[in-house]
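Researcher: Please predict.
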Amino acid sequence: DVQLQASGGGLVQPGGSLRLSCAASGFIFSTSGMNWLRQAPGKGVEWVSYIYSGGNRATYAASVEGRFTISKDSSKNTVYLQMNNLKPEDTAMYYCQVDDTRGQGTLVTVSS
């Protein structure tokens, strides 16, 4: 079975940074593109970023472009999301997803 477990969330002040991790198993990670999504309180799910299977290309939502960086380490079956210059509107539960499978999320709260 495909399993995805996100971690690394927490409380951070505006302007701060966090790095999220998502450990993956149950599929061929090295040949899979990976997504990060988020859901803010009371809102729908928002796509954040996608990294292609080879790890050398990525796309971002306009709301995070220039502040977030997605990466993957196929030796560890892990995808990362480096988040810099965080804003209160980045507060959300963050999830990683492969194809139609979404893992358990990790909560990011940006507040002073």
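Model: DSSP finds no helices and eleven strands in the chain.
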